Amino acid sequence: MTDKTTDNKAYLYSASAPTSEQEGRFLAFLRKKYGEETELVFVEERELSDGFRLQIGNDVFNWTREARLEQLKESLKNLANRDGELIPLIRENLHDWTPKACAEQIGRVLTVGDGIATVSGLDSAFYGEILIFAGGLRGMVQSLTEKCVGCVLFGDASDAGVAAGTLVRRTGRISGVPVGEEFIGRVVNALGEPVDGKGAVAADKYRPAESPAPGIVDRAPVKRPLQTGILAIDSMFAIGKGQRELIIGDRQTGKTSIAVDTILNQKNKNVICIYVAIGQKSSSVASLVHTLEKKGAMDYTIVVSATAGDSAPLQYLAPYAGCAMGEYFMEKGRDVLIVYDDLSKHAVAYRSLSLLLGRAPGREAYPGDVFYLHSRLLERSAHLSEKRGGGSMTALPVVETQAGDVSAYIPTNIISITDGQIFLESDLFYSGQRPAVNVGLSVSRVGGDAQTKAVKYAAGTLRLDLAQYREMEVFTQFAGDLDETTKAQLCHGQRLMRLLRQPQNRPMSHHGEVIALVAAGSKALDGVEPEKSRDFVMSLIDLCEREHSELCLRIDETERLTDEDKAEIIGAAARVIL
Ligand code: ATP
Ligand code: MG
After folding, report:
1. Fewest beta carbons less than 10 Å away: which of 28, 141, 167, 418?
2. Closest C-alpha to ligand 1, atom 28
Protein backbone atom coordinates (compact mmCIF):
# COMPACT_ATOMS: atom_id res chain seq x y z
CA MET A 1 0.00 0.00 0.00
CA THR A 2 1.14 3.53 -0.69
CA ASP A 3 2.39 5.68 2.13
CA LYS A 4 -0.68 6.75 4.00
CA THR A 5 -1.60 9.83 5.95
CA THR A 6 -1.99 9.46 9.67
CA ASP A 7 -5.13 11.57 9.96
CA ASN A 8 -7.09 9.72 7.26
CA LYS A 9 -7.79 12.93 5.42
CA ALA A 10 -7.41 13.66 1.75
CA TYR A 11 -7.29 17.35 0.85
CA LEU A 12 -8.84 18.41 -2.42
CA TYR A 13 -7.60 21.81 -3.66
CA SER A 14 -9.77 23.32 -6.35
CA ALA A 15 -11.44 26.56 -7.39
CA SER A 16 -14.95 25.30 -6.60
CA ALA A 17 -16.45 22.60 -4.42
CA PRO A 18 -16.89 19.21 -6.14
CA THR A 19 -20.40 18.12 -7.11
CA SER A 20 -21.72 15.10 -5.24
CA GLU A 21 -21.03 12.97 -8.32
CA GLN A 22 -17.42 14.15 -8.49
CA GLU A 23 -17.05 13.63 -4.77
CA GLY A 24 -18.27 10.05 -5.16
CA ARG A 25 -15.68 9.47 -7.87
CA PHE A 26 -12.91 10.88 -5.70
CA LEU A 27 -13.94 8.70 -2.78
CA ALA A 28 -14.09 5.60 -4.98
CA PHE A 29 -10.63 6.42 -6.29
CA LEU A 30 -9.28 6.86 -2.77
CA ARG A 31 -10.87 3.64 -1.59
CA LYS A 32 -9.36 1.74 -4.48
CA LYS A 33 -5.95 3.20 -3.88
CA TYR A 34 -5.79 3.28 -0.11
CA GLY A 35 -8.18 0.52 0.87
CA GLU A 36 -10.10 2.02 3.72
CA GLU A 37 -12.51 4.93 4.15
CA THR A 38 -10.80 8.29 3.82
CA GLU A 39 -12.36 11.65 4.54
CA LEU A 40 -12.30 14.13 1.68
CA VAL A 41 -11.67 17.74 2.75
CA PHE A 42 -12.29 20.47 0.20
CA VAL A 43 -9.97 23.48 0.25
CA GLU A 44 -10.72 26.42 -2.00
CA GLU A 45 -7.82 27.53 -4.17
CA ARG A 46 -9.13 30.06 -6.62
CA GLU A 47 -6.20 29.94 -9.01
CA LEU A 48 -6.94 26.29 -9.81
CA SER A 49 -9.84 27.05 -12.11
CA ASP A 50 -8.66 24.50 -14.66
CA GLY A 51 -8.03 21.49 -12.51
CA PHE A 52 -7.52 20.23 -9.02
CA ARG A 53 -4.92 18.79 -6.74
CA LEU A 54 -5.56 15.93 -4.35
CA GLN A 55 -3.20 15.47 -1.47
CA ILE A 56 -3.15 12.51 0.84
CA GLY A 57 -0.22 12.24 3.17
CA ASN A 58 2.86 12.75 1.07
CA ASP A 59 1.14 11.72 -2.15
CA VAL A 60 -0.07 14.44 -4.44
CA PHE A 61 -2.29 13.83 -7.46
CA ASN A 62 -1.82 16.77 -9.66
CA TRP A 63 -4.52 17.55 -12.20
CA THR A 64 -3.65 21.15 -12.86
CA ARG A 65 -2.93 22.38 -16.33
CA GLU A 66 0.83 22.57 -15.82
CA ALA A 67 1.04 19.11 -14.30
CA ARG A 68 -1.10 17.60 -17.06
CA LEU A 69 1.06 19.18 -19.74
CA GLU A 70 4.15 17.97 -17.96
CA GLN A 71 2.84 14.41 -17.84
CA LEU A 72 1.72 14.57 -21.45
CA LYS A 73 5.18 15.71 -22.46
CA GLU A 74 6.70 12.78 -20.62
CA SER A 75 4.40 10.24 -22.25
CA LEU A 76 5.02 11.75 -25.69
CA LYS A 77 8.71 11.37 -25.12
CA ASN A 78 8.18 7.68 -24.39
CA LEU A 79 6.01 7.33 -27.48
CA ALA A 80 8.69 8.73 -29.70
CA ASN A 81 10.90 5.87 -28.67
CA ARG A 82 8.37 3.34 -29.89
CA ASP A 83 8.04 2.45 -33.56
CA GLY A 84 4.87 2.83 -35.57
CA GLU A 85 2.28 5.45 -36.36
CA LEU A 86 2.46 8.34 -33.96
CA ILE A 87 -1.10 9.74 -34.18
CA PRO A 88 -3.00 6.55 -33.15
CA LEU A 89 -0.50 6.05 -30.40
CA ILE A 90 -1.10 9.57 -29.10
CA ARG A 91 -4.83 9.03 -29.29
CA GLU A 92 -4.62 5.76 -27.45
CA ASN A 93 -2.44 7.38 -24.83
CA LEU A 94 -4.79 10.29 -24.34
CA HIS A 95 -7.78 8.00 -23.88
CA ASP A 96 -6.47 5.97 -21.05
CA TRP A 97 -4.34 8.62 -19.47
CA THR A 98 -4.72 9.05 -15.72
CA PRO A 99 -2.93 11.44 -13.45
CA LYS A 100 -0.17 9.95 -11.41
CA ALA A 101 0.87 10.66 -7.91
CA CYS A 102 3.94 12.71 -8.58
CA ALA A 103 6.78 13.60 -6.35
CA GLU A 104 6.19 17.10 -5.03
CA GLN A 105 7.99 18.91 -2.33
CA ILE A 106 6.04 18.64 0.87
CA GLY A 107 7.32 20.42 3.93
CA ARG A 108 6.50 20.28 7.57
CA VAL A 109 6.01 23.10 10.02
CA LEU A 110 8.84 23.37 12.53
CA THR A 111 7.61 26.26 14.62
CA VAL A 112 4.64 28.56 14.44
CA GLY A 113 3.76 31.69 16.36
CA ASP A 114 3.08 35.44 16.02
CA GLY A 115 1.83 34.97 12.47
CA ILE A 116 5.13 33.42 11.35
CA ALA A 117 5.88 29.77 10.59
CA THR A 118 9.18 28.10 9.85
CA VAL A 119 8.93 25.17 7.50
CA SER A 120 11.48 22.47 6.75
CA GLY A 121 11.75 20.34 3.65
CA LEU A 122 10.95 22.97 1.03
CA ASP A 123 14.42 23.34 -0.38
CA SER A 124 13.44 24.90 -3.67
CA ALA A 125 10.78 27.29 -2.39
CA PHE A 126 11.45 30.84 -3.53
CA TYR A 127 11.07 34.28 -1.99
CA GLY A 128 7.50 35.51 -2.16
CA GLU A 129 6.08 32.08 -3.03
CA ILE A 130 2.69 31.15 -1.62
CA LEU A 131 2.61 28.04 0.55
CA ILE A 132 -0.56 26.22 1.50
CA PHE A 133 -0.85 24.53 4.87
CA ALA A 134 -2.95 21.41 5.32
CA GLY A 135 -6.33 22.83 6.23
CA GLY A 136 -6.12 25.66 3.72
CA LEU A 137 -4.27 28.47 5.50
CA ARG A 138 -1.91 30.33 3.19
CA GLY A 139 1.40 31.93 3.81
CA MET A 140 4.12 33.69 1.90
CA VAL A 141 7.82 32.83 1.99
CA GLN A 142 9.70 35.80 3.37
CA SER A 143 13.02 34.36 4.46
CA LEU A 144 15.21 31.62 3.08
CA THR A 145 17.79 29.98 5.29
CA GLU A 146 19.85 26.84 4.85
CA LYS A 147 17.69 24.62 7.01
CA CYS A 148 14.23 26.05 6.69
CA VAL A 149 12.11 28.77 5.12
CA GLY A 150 10.35 31.47 7.11
CA CYS A 151 6.83 32.14 6.07
CA VAL A 152 4.32 34.82 7.08
CA LEU A 153 0.76 33.61 7.56
CA PHE A 154 -2.34 35.22 6.03
CA GLY A 155 -4.60 34.19 8.86
CA ASP A 156 -4.77 32.85 12.34
CA ALA A 157 -2.65 29.71 12.75
CA SER A 158 -4.55 28.24 15.69
CA ASP A 159 -7.92 28.79 13.98
CA ALA A 160 -6.67 26.90 10.94
CA GLY A 161 -5.16 24.13 13.07
CA VAL A 162 -1.60 24.82 11.98
CA ALA A 163 0.91 23.46 14.48
CA ALA A 164 4.35 21.92 14.49
CA GLY A 165 4.32 18.98 12.08
CA THR A 166 1.50 20.25 9.83
CA LEU A 167 2.09 19.47 6.16
CA VAL A 168 2.86 22.36 3.84
CA ARG A 169 2.69 22.39 0.09
CA ARG A 170 4.35 24.66 -2.43
CA THR A 171 2.22 26.33 -5.06
CA GLY A 172 5.05 27.53 -7.28
CA ARG A 173 3.19 30.84 -7.53
CA ILE A 174 4.34 34.21 -6.39
CA SER A 175 1.85 35.94 -4.12
CA GLY A 176 -0.74 37.81 -6.06
CA VAL A 177 -4.28 39.08 -6.24
CA PRO A 178 -7.23 38.59 -8.53
CA VAL A 179 -7.87 41.70 -10.63
CA GLY A 180 -10.63 42.85 -12.93
CA GLU A 181 -13.33 45.38 -13.79
CA GLU A 182 -15.72 43.91 -11.27
CA PHE A 183 -13.58 45.07 -8.38
CA ILE A 184 -14.68 48.63 -9.04
CA GLY A 185 -17.12 49.70 -6.34
CA ARG A 186 -15.99 47.01 -3.92
CA VAL A 187 -14.13 46.84 -0.64
CA VAL A 188 -11.61 44.00 -0.56
CA ASN A 189 -8.85 42.80 1.74
CA ALA A 190 -5.18 42.46 0.86
CA LEU A 191 -5.83 39.09 -0.77
CA GLY A 192 -8.52 40.51 -3.04
CA GLU A 193 -11.35 38.87 -1.10
CA PRO A 194 -14.46 41.03 -0.74
CA VAL A 195 -15.15 42.26 2.79
CA ASP A 196 -18.21 44.38 2.05
CA GLY A 197 -20.71 41.51 2.20
CA LYS A 198 -21.82 42.05 -1.40
CA GLY A 199 -20.86 38.57 -2.60
CA ALA A 200 -18.05 37.14 -4.64
CA VAL A 201 -16.18 39.14 -7.28
CA ALA A 202 -15.55 37.59 -10.68
CA ALA A 203 -11.91 38.26 -11.48
CA ASP A 204 -10.54 38.69 -14.99
CA LYS A 205 -7.16 37.33 -14.03
CA TYR A 206 -4.62 36.82 -11.30
CA ARG A 207 -1.69 39.22 -11.09
CA PRO A 208 1.44 38.92 -8.99
CA ALA A 209 1.42 41.42 -6.15
CA GLU A 210 4.98 42.41 -6.97
CA SER A 211 6.06 43.00 -10.52
CA PRO A 212 8.81 45.07 -12.10
CA ALA A 213 8.12 48.75 -12.69
CA PRO A 214 7.87 49.96 -16.30
CA GLY A 215 11.28 50.87 -17.71
CA ILE A 216 12.36 54.28 -18.97
CA VAL A 217 11.56 53.45 -22.61
CA ASP A 218 8.00 52.49 -21.70
CA ARG A 219 7.35 55.81 -20.02
CA ALA A 220 6.15 59.14 -21.34
CA PRO A 221 6.70 62.51 -19.64
CA VAL A 222 4.17 63.50 -16.98
CA LYS A 223 2.22 66.28 -18.67
CA ARG A 224 -1.49 65.80 -18.19
CA PRO A 225 -2.93 67.33 -15.00
CA LEU A 226 -4.71 65.31 -12.35
CA GLN A 227 -6.86 67.90 -10.67
CA THR A 228 -7.37 67.53 -6.95
CA GLY A 229 -10.11 70.14 -6.78
CA ILE A 230 -8.21 71.72 -3.89
CA LEU A 231 -7.31 75.27 -4.87
CA ALA A 232 -4.13 75.42 -2.78
CA ILE A 233 -2.75 72.32 -4.47
CA ASP A 234 -3.90 72.79 -8.06
CA SER A 235 -2.69 76.38 -8.16
CA MET A 236 0.75 75.91 -6.57
CA PHE A 237 1.70 72.22 -6.43
CA ALA A 238 -0.10 70.76 -9.42
CA ILE A 239 -0.07 67.00 -9.71
CA GLY A 240 0.31 65.28 -13.08
CA LYS A 241 -1.04 61.93 -14.19
CA GLY A 242 1.64 59.36 -13.42
CA GLN A 243 3.26 61.44 -10.68
CA ARG A 244 3.93 60.37 -7.09
CA GLU A 245 3.06 63.14 -4.67
CA LEU A 246 3.52 62.55 -0.97
CA ILE A 247 1.00 63.86 1.54
CA ILE A 248 2.90 64.32 4.77
CA GLY A 249 2.00 65.74 8.16
CA ASP A 250 1.36 65.01 11.82
CA ARG A 251 -1.63 63.03 12.90
CA GLN A 252 -5.00 64.71 12.44
CA THR A 253 -3.85 67.38 10.04
CA GLY A 254 -6.20 66.49 7.20
CA LYS A 255 -4.00 64.08 5.20
CA THR A 256 -6.76 61.60 4.48
CA SER A 257 -9.17 64.44 3.68
CA ILE A 258 -6.91 65.68 0.87
CA ALA A 259 -6.76 62.20 -0.63
CA VAL A 260 -10.52 61.73 -0.34
CA ASP A 261 -11.26 65.13 -1.88
CA THR A 262 -9.00 64.20 -4.77
CA ILE A 263 -10.95 60.97 -5.26
CA LEU A 264 -14.26 62.86 -5.11
CA ASN A 265 -12.96 65.30 -7.72
CA GLN A 266 -12.35 62.48 -10.23
CA LYS A 267 -16.08 62.03 -10.74
CA ASN A 268 -16.93 61.89 -14.46
CA LYS A 269 -13.25 62.34 -15.30
CA ASN A 270 -12.68 58.74 -16.37
CA VAL A 271 -10.11 58.03 -13.65
CA ILE A 272 -10.24 54.83 -11.61
CA CYS A 273 -9.39 55.41 -7.97
CA ILE A 274 -7.94 52.91 -5.53
CA TYR A 275 -7.79 53.71 -1.85
CA VAL A 276 -5.51 51.43 0.16
CA ALA A 277 -6.09 51.65 3.92
CA ILE A 278 -3.16 50.31 5.93
CA GLY A 279 -3.32 49.84 9.68
CA GLN A 280 -6.26 52.17 10.23
CA LYS A 281 -9.24 51.60 12.49
CA SER A 282 -12.05 49.67 10.79
CA SER A 283 -14.44 52.44 11.82
CA SER A 284 -12.38 55.07 9.94
CA VAL A 285 -12.37 52.91 6.83
CA ALA A 286 -16.11 52.32 7.15
CA SER A 287 -16.85 56.03 7.46
CA LEU A 288 -14.60 56.79 4.50
CA VAL A 289 -16.41 54.21 2.36
CA HIS A 290 -19.68 55.77 3.52
CA THR A 291 -18.52 59.22 2.39
CA LEU A 292 -17.44 57.84 -0.98
CA GLU A 293 -20.76 56.06 -1.39
CA LYS A 294 -22.77 59.12 -0.43
CA LYS A 295 -20.95 61.23 -3.00
CA GLY A 296 -21.28 58.61 -5.72
CA ALA A 297 -17.53 58.03 -5.82
CA MET A 298 -17.69 54.28 -5.26
CA ASP A 299 -18.80 53.96 -8.89
CA TYR A 300 -15.17 54.33 -9.92
CA THR A 301 -13.32 53.41 -6.74
CA ILE A 302 -11.84 50.25 -5.22
CA VAL A 303 -11.03 50.19 -1.52
CA VAL A 304 -8.32 47.77 -0.38
CA SER A 305 -8.45 47.52 3.36
CA ALA A 306 -5.95 46.03 5.79
CA THR A 307 -7.02 47.49 9.12
CA ALA A 308 -5.12 47.61 12.39
CA GLY A 309 -6.95 44.41 13.36
CA ASP A 310 -5.46 42.51 10.41
CA SER A 311 -2.17 40.68 10.73
CA ALA A 312 1.11 42.41 9.86
CA PRO A 313 1.58 40.29 6.70
CA LEU A 314 -1.77 41.46 5.33
CA GLN A 315 -0.92 45.07 6.13
CA TYR A 316 2.41 44.58 4.41
CA LEU A 317 0.78 43.08 1.32
CA ALA A 318 -2.11 45.56 0.95
CA PRO A 319 -0.35 48.35 -1.01
CA TYR A 320 1.18 45.84 -3.42
CA ALA A 321 -2.22 44.27 -3.94
CA GLY A 322 -3.76 47.68 -4.62
CA CYS A 323 -0.92 48.52 -6.98
CA ALA A 324 -1.41 45.28 -8.93
CA MET A 325 -5.10 46.13 -9.32
CA GLY A 326 -4.14 49.59 -10.56
CA GLU A 327 -1.61 48.22 -13.02
CA TYR A 328 -4.29 46.07 -14.57
CA PHE A 329 -6.22 49.21 -15.54
CA MET A 330 -3.11 51.21 -16.40
CA GLU A 331 -2.04 48.57 -18.89
CA LYS A 332 -5.44 48.79 -20.51
CA GLY A 333 -4.70 52.45 -21.22
CA ARG A 334 -6.81 53.84 -18.38
CA ASP A 335 -5.88 56.51 -15.85
CA VAL A 336 -5.61 55.37 -12.27
CA LEU A 337 -5.22 57.24 -8.99
CA ILE A 338 -3.96 55.23 -6.05
CA VAL A 339 -3.78 56.41 -2.44
CA TYR A 340 -1.62 54.55 0.10
CA ASP A 341 -2.91 55.63 3.51
CA ASP A 342 -0.43 55.36 5.14
CA LEU A 343 3.08 54.13 4.45
CA SER A 344 4.35 54.83 7.99
CA LYS A 345 2.06 52.12 9.26
CA HIS A 346 3.12 49.95 6.35
CA ALA A 347 6.76 50.33 7.39
CA VAL A 348 5.82 49.44 10.97
CA ALA A 349 4.02 46.28 9.81
CA TYR A 350 7.05 45.33 7.74
CA ARG A 351 9.34 46.03 10.68
CA SER A 352 7.35 43.76 12.97
CA LEU A 353 7.32 40.87 10.56
CA SER A 354 11.01 41.32 9.75
CA LEU A 355 11.95 41.30 13.41
CA LEU A 356 9.86 38.18 13.97
CA LEU A 357 11.65 36.54 11.06
CA GLY A 358 14.91 37.30 12.81
CA ARG A 359 16.29 39.93 10.43
CA ALA A 360 18.88 42.31 11.77
CA PRO A 361 17.37 45.64 12.78
CA GLY A 362 18.91 48.82 11.40
CA ARG A 363 18.08 52.48 11.89
CA GLU A 364 15.01 52.98 14.16
CA ALA A 365 14.85 49.15 14.22
CA TYR A 366 13.63 49.02 10.62
CA PRO A 367 15.22 46.33 8.48
CA GLY A 368 17.83 47.48 5.96
CA ASP A 369 15.58 47.02 2.94
CA VAL A 370 12.75 49.30 4.05
CA PHE A 371 13.80 51.91 1.47
CA TYR A 372 13.62 49.29 -1.26
CA LEU A 373 10.24 48.21 0.10
CA HIS A 374 8.74 51.59 -0.71
CA SER A 375 10.76 52.45 -3.78
CA ARG A 376 9.72 49.30 -5.62
CA LEU A 377 6.11 50.08 -4.74
CA LEU A 378 6.09 53.72 -5.81
CA GLU A 379 8.28 53.14 -8.86
CA ARG A 380 5.38 51.22 -10.37
CA SER A 381 3.38 54.40 -10.81
CA ALA A 382 3.98 55.68 -14.28
CA HIS A 383 2.67 57.45 -17.31
CA LEU A 384 3.04 54.86 -20.06
CA SER A 385 4.07 55.78 -23.57
CA GLU A 386 1.59 55.71 -26.45
CA LYS A 387 3.08 52.42 -27.57
CA ARG A 388 2.21 50.86 -24.23
CA GLY A 389 -1.32 52.20 -24.34
CA GLY A 390 -0.82 55.62 -22.75
CA GLY A 391 -2.33 54.67 -19.40
CA SER A 392 -1.18 56.18 -16.14
CA MET A 393 -1.09 55.51 -12.43
CA THR A 394 -0.77 58.47 -10.10
CA ALA A 395 0.24 57.68 -6.52
CA LEU A 396 -0.60 59.70 -3.44
CA PRO A 397 1.28 58.02 -0.60
CA VAL A 398 0.55 59.36 2.88
CA VAL A 399 3.15 59.56 5.64
CA GLU A 400 2.57 60.53 9.24
CA THR A 401 5.26 62.55 11.00
CA GLN A 402 5.88 62.91 14.73
CA ALA A 403 5.80 66.55 15.85
CA GLY A 404 6.51 67.77 12.32
CA ASP A 405 9.82 65.91 12.10
CA VAL A 406 10.34 65.38 8.39
CA SER A 407 13.92 64.25 8.95
CA ALA A 408 12.95 60.93 10.56
CA TYR A 409 13.91 57.76 8.73
CA ILE A 410 10.70 56.79 6.92
CA PRO A 411 9.68 60.39 5.95
CA THR A 412 13.13 61.14 4.45
CA ASN A 413 13.07 57.85 2.57
CA ILE A 414 9.71 58.50 1.01
CA ILE A 415 10.38 62.19 0.35
CA SER A 416 13.38 61.13 -1.72
CA ILE A 417 11.39 58.53 -3.66
CA THR A 418 8.42 60.73 -4.57
CA ASP A 419 8.20 63.63 -7.02
CA GLY A 420 7.17 66.15 -4.41
CA GLN A 421 5.24 66.54 -1.21
CA ILE A 422 2.28 68.37 0.22
CA PHE A 423 3.38 69.26 3.71
CA LEU A 424 0.54 69.75 6.20
CA GLU A 425 1.25 71.66 9.38
CA SER A 426 -0.53 71.31 12.72
CA ASP A 427 -0.11 74.99 13.61
CA LEU A 428 -1.83 76.06 10.42
CA PHE A 429 -4.50 73.42 10.93
CA TYR A 430 -5.30 74.59 14.45
CA SER A 431 -5.27 78.24 13.44
CA GLY A 432 -8.13 77.36 11.09
CA GLN A 433 -6.15 77.38 7.85
CA ARG A 434 -7.51 74.16 6.35
CA PRO A 435 -6.27 72.38 4.25
CA ALA A 436 -3.16 73.17 6.27
CA VAL A 437 -0.76 73.23 3.31
CA ASN A 438 2.61 74.73 4.20
CA VAL A 439 3.47 76.76 1.12
CA GLY A 440 7.18 76.92 1.92
CA LEU A 441 7.86 73.24 2.45
CA SER A 442 5.53 71.80 -0.16
CA VAL A 443 6.72 71.20 -3.68
CA SER A 444 5.74 69.41 -6.85
CA ARG A 445 8.69 68.53 -9.04
CA VAL A 446 6.46 68.30 -12.09
CA GLY A 447 4.75 71.57 -11.28
CA GLY A 448 3.70 73.84 -14.13
CA ASP A 449 4.00 71.06 -16.72
CA ALA A 450 1.04 69.38 -15.13
CA GLN A 451 -1.15 72.47 -14.92
CA THR A 452 -3.68 73.45 -17.50
CA LYS A 453 -2.65 76.61 -19.32
CA ALA A 454 -5.63 78.40 -17.81
CA VAL A 455 -4.71 77.64 -14.20
CA LYS A 456 -1.06 78.40 -14.85
CA TYR A 457 -1.87 81.78 -16.34
CA ALA A 458 -4.44 82.64 -13.68
CA ALA A 459 -2.25 81.53 -10.75
CA GLY A 460 0.45 84.00 -11.80
CA THR A 461 2.54 85.05 -8.83
CA LEU A 462 0.34 83.46 -6.17
CA ARG A 463 3.10 81.42 -4.63
CA LEU A 464 5.49 84.34 -4.52
CA ASP A 465 2.87 86.65 -3.01
CA LEU A 466 2.19 84.12 -0.28
CA ALA A 467 5.87 83.62 0.47
CA GLN A 468 6.32 87.39 0.76
CA TYR A 469 3.29 87.64 2.97
CA ARG A 470 4.53 85.00 5.38
CA GLU A 471 7.90 86.69 5.70
CA MET A 472 6.38 90.11 6.14
CA GLU A 473 3.89 88.82 8.66
CA VAL A 474 6.68 87.69 10.96
CA PHE A 475 8.61 90.94 10.65
CA THR A 476 5.66 93.23 11.11
CA GLN A 477 4.11 91.37 14.00
CA PHE A 478 5.26 93.95 16.55
CA ALA A 479 5.67 96.96 14.31
CA GLY A 480 3.06 99.68 14.70
CA ASP A 481 3.87 101.99 11.84
CA LEU A 482 3.81 100.43 8.38
CA ASP A 483 4.25 102.03 4.99
CA GLU A 484 1.51 101.77 2.41
CA THR A 485 3.15 99.12 0.20
CA THR A 486 3.72 96.80 3.15
CA LYS A 487 0.17 97.36 4.32
CA ALA A 488 -1.14 96.53 0.85
CA GLN A 489 0.99 93.38 0.67
CA LEU A 490 -0.22 92.23 4.07
CA CYS A 491 -3.81 92.96 3.18
CA HIS A 492 -3.48 91.03 -0.10
CA GLY A 493 -1.75 88.09 1.59
CA GLN A 494 -4.40 87.81 4.28
CA ARG A 495 -7.10 87.54 1.68
CA LEU A 496 -5.18 84.97 -0.32
CA MET A 497 -4.76 82.81 2.78
CA ARG A 498 -8.48 83.09 3.46
CA LEU A 499 -9.25 82.17 -0.12
CA LEU A 500 -7.18 78.99 0.16
CA ARG A 501 -9.28 77.77 3.09
CA GLN A 502 -11.54 75.14 1.66
CA PRO A 503 -14.11 73.00 3.43
CA GLN A 504 -13.83 69.24 3.28
CA ASN A 505 -15.53 67.19 0.56
CA ARG A 506 -16.11 70.20 -1.63
CA PRO A 507 -13.63 70.03 -4.50
CA MET A 508 -13.68 72.96 -6.90
CA SER A 509 -14.31 72.70 -10.62
CA HIS A 510 -11.61 73.67 -13.11
CA HIS A 511 -13.32 76.89 -14.18
CA GLY A 512 -14.09 77.65 -10.52
CA GLU A 513 -10.41 77.52 -9.71
CA VAL A 514 -9.53 79.73 -12.65
CA ILE A 515 -12.16 82.32 -11.68
CA ALA A 516 -10.98 82.32 -8.06
CA LEU A 517 -7.37 82.80 -9.10
CA VAL A 518 -8.17 85.59 -11.53
CA ALA A 519 -10.19 87.38 -8.84
CA ALA A 520 -7.34 87.01 -6.35
CA GLY A 521 -4.68 88.07 -8.87
CA SER A 522 -6.61 91.17 -9.96
CA LYS A 523 -6.71 92.36 -6.35
CA ALA A 524 -10.50 92.36 -6.55
CA LEU A 525 -10.48 90.77 -3.12
CA ASP A 526 -8.46 93.47 -1.45
CA GLY A 527 -11.49 95.66 -0.92
CA VAL A 528 -13.43 92.88 0.80
CA GLU A 529 -13.24 91.96 4.49
CA PRO A 530 -10.70 89.11 4.89
CA GLU A 531 -13.32 86.77 6.43
CA LYS A 532 -15.55 87.36 3.44
CA SER A 533 -12.99 86.64 0.70
CA ARG A 534 -14.09 83.07 0.19
CA ASP A 535 -17.78 83.99 0.18
CA PHE A 536 -16.99 86.69 -2.34
CA VAL A 537 -15.23 84.26 -4.66
CA MET A 538 -17.98 81.67 -4.30
CA SER A 539 -20.60 84.26 -5.25
CA LEU A 540 -18.46 85.28 -8.20
CA ILE A 541 -18.21 81.69 -9.42
CA ASP A 542 -21.96 81.38 -9.00
CA LEU A 543 -22.54 84.55 -10.94
CA CYS A 544 -20.24 83.41 -13.75
CA GLU A 545 -21.93 80.02 -13.96
CA ARG A 546 -25.32 81.69 -14.17
CA GLU A 547 -24.61 84.63 -16.45
CA HIS A 548 -21.43 83.67 -18.28
CA SER A 549 -21.95 79.97 -18.79
CA GLU A 550 -20.20 79.99 -22.20
CA LEU A 551 -17.14 81.46 -20.53
CA CYS A 552 -17.04 78.63 -17.97
CA LEU A 553 -17.56 76.06 -20.68
CA ARG A 554 -14.85 77.61 -22.84
CA ILE A 555 -12.31 77.55 -20.00
CA ASP A 556 -13.07 73.91 -19.23
CA GLU A 557 -12.95 72.80 -22.85
CA THR A 558 -9.97 74.69 -24.20
CA GLU A 559 -8.16 74.68 -20.84
CA ARG A 560 -6.95 78.14 -21.81
CA LEU A 561 -7.62 81.62 -20.54
CA THR A 562 -7.49 84.54 -22.93
CA ASP A 563 -7.06 88.16 -21.91
CA GLU A 564 -10.68 88.81 -22.92
CA ASP A 565 -11.86 85.99 -20.64
CA LYS A 566 -9.84 87.47 -17.83
CA ALA A 567 -11.38 90.89 -18.41
CA GLU A 568 -14.84 89.31 -18.43
CA ILE A 569 -14.20 87.70 -15.03
CA ILE A 570 -12.85 90.94 -13.56
CA GLY A 571 -15.91 92.72 -14.95
CA ALA A 572 -18.17 90.19 -13.28
CA ALA A 573 -16.27 90.59 -10.01
CA ALA A 574 -17.33 94.24 -9.89
CA ARG A 575 -20.96 93.14 -9.89
CA VAL A 576 -20.75 90.73 -6.94
CA ILE A 577 -22.91 91.86 -4.06
CA LEU A 578 -22.26 90.23 -0.71
P1 ATP B 1 -4.97 60.68 10.95
O2 ATP B 1 -3.59 61.05 11.35
O3 ATP B 1 -5.83 60.31 12.08
O4 ATP B 1 -5.02 59.75 9.80
P5 ATP B 1 -5.46 62.74 9.05
O6 ATP B 1 -4.22 63.53 9.01
O7 ATP B 1 -5.70 61.78 7.96
O8 ATP B 1 -5.62 62.06 10.45
P9 ATP B 1 -8.12 63.65 8.60
O10 ATP B 1 -8.72 62.45 9.17
O11 ATP B 1 -8.17 63.84 7.14
O12 ATP B 1 -6.63 63.80 9.11
O13 ATP B 1 -8.73 64.97 9.21
C14 ATP B 1 -8.67 65.25 10.59
C15 ATP B 1 -9.86 66.09 10.98
O16 ATP B 1 -9.80 67.35 10.35
C17 ATP B 1 -11.17 65.48 10.59
O18 ATP B 1 -12.06 65.59 11.65
C19 ATP B 1 -11.63 66.32 9.43
O20 ATP B 1 -13.03 66.42 9.40
C21 ATP B 1 -10.98 67.64 9.67
N22 ATP B 1 -10.67 68.31 8.40
C23 ATP B 1 -9.83 67.86 7.45
N24 ATP B 1 -9.75 68.70 6.41
C25 ATP B 1 -10.57 69.72 6.70
C26 ATP B 1 -10.95 70.92 6.00
N27 ATP B 1 -10.45 71.23 4.81
N28 ATP B 1 -11.83 71.73 6.62
C29 ATP B 1 -12.32 71.43 7.82
N30 ATP B 1 -12.03 70.33 8.52
C31 ATP B 1 -11.17 69.46 7.97
MG1 MG C 1 -5.75 59.68 7.97
Report:
1. 28
2. 503
